[in-house]
Structure formats: structure tokens, C-alpha cells
Write a structure and sequence with these properties.
Length: 167
């Protein structure tokens, strides 16, 4: 990690917004910028844990989703919906994961138009090991107190619902 800055640049940006006459949006700008920076920090931690497993967070999310699915398989369109990503992103992840033997594609047994994604035994094992590492190295050491976690879940969940992420 880089050497910490002597001051909070987001707090400085807020002051600059206020000095330029944008006081009414200075606090929301600082909050949104802080969320974006926090996402960068957390993603860097997650990527550091997942790197030895040879997967990105996006590919890990797909493996984890499949590991929770009945029989370790899901239709590609359902995986896309549950991961809340464009179908092209799922196709790209499946291509990469299939290329290293972690998933396979197959035709749905009752709907020939639907492609299933299924974990291989190697994919299931890797998902399990990666999840264990993330649980220990990231999720158990989030940097947030239990109360802060509860507040974040509530605040961000409300925002996401209001934005149409879920009903």
C-alpha cells in the first residue's frame, strides 16, 4: 500500500466545492467520492487474495454463485440477472473459466435454446478455497465495526432499492 497522505484529499475536495459556491452538493460529492475510493481499496484487497487462485473478482463471483446453485449449474441468462451484469460479461467470464477447466457449458435438458453453466469438480474446489481465503483475509477483517456494517447494509440497501436494483 502507498504511503498515507498527510490529509484527507476528499475532505479537501469538499472544502474546494464549498469555496467555489457548490456548498449544497459538497457533502454528497464527498460521500460519493468516499464510496468510490472505498470500493477501490476493497477491490484491491480482494484481488490480492484471489490472485493466487488465478481468478478475478468477477470470475470468482460466478464460481461462488454456481457453487450455491442446485447441482452447481445455472442458465447463463439467470447467472447474468443474479450477478446484475450484462450477458456479454457472463459470456466472457465463462469463456475464461471454461478455458482453465473450472466450468463447462451444456444444453439445458428441457429447453434446447438455453445454455447451462456448470461447475467442474475443479471449479467447485477452487470456489471453496477462494471463499475460505476471502472470509479470513477480507470479510472477517473488513475494517468496519459490526454496527458500521449494519448501517452500511441498511443505507446502501435503501439506495439500491430506490435506484431500482431490486423491489
Amino acid at each position: 500500500m502507498a504511503t498515507p497522505l498527510p490529509r484527507d484529499p476528499i475532505a479537501d475536495a469538499r472544502l474546494n466545492w464549498e469555496r467555489h459556491g457548490w456548498s449544497e452538493v459538497a457533502a454528497p460529492m464527498a460521500a460519493i467520492t468516499a464510496i468510490m475510493r472505498t470500493q477501490q481499496i476493497l477491490l484491491a484487497r480482494i484481488d490480492g487474495v484471489l490472485k493466487p487462485f488465478g481468478v478475478t473478482f468477477a470470475r470468482y463471483e460466478l464460481l461462488a454463485l454456481l457453487s450455491f446453485a442446485h447441482g452447481g449449474a445455472l442458465p447463463m441468462n439467470k447467472a447474468s440477472a443474479l450477478l446484475q451484469v450484462h450477458p456479454t460479461s457472463v459470456t466472457n467470464a465463462v469463456d475464461r473459466l471454461q478455458g482453465v477447466g473450472l466450468v463447462i457449458r451444456s444444453t439445458h435438458p428441457t429447453d434446447g435454446r438455453t445454455t447451462l453453466i456448470e461447475l467442474t469438480p475443479e471449479g467447485r474446489a477452487l470456489a471453496g478455497r477462494a471463499t475460505a481465503a476471502l472470509n479470513v483475509e477480507v470479510f472477517a477483517q473488513s475494517g468496519f465495526t459490526e454496527q458500521e456494517v449494519d448501517q452500511l447494509i441498511r443505507v446502501l440497501g435503501s439506495f439500491r432499492r430506490d435506484a431500482g436494483d431490486f423491489a
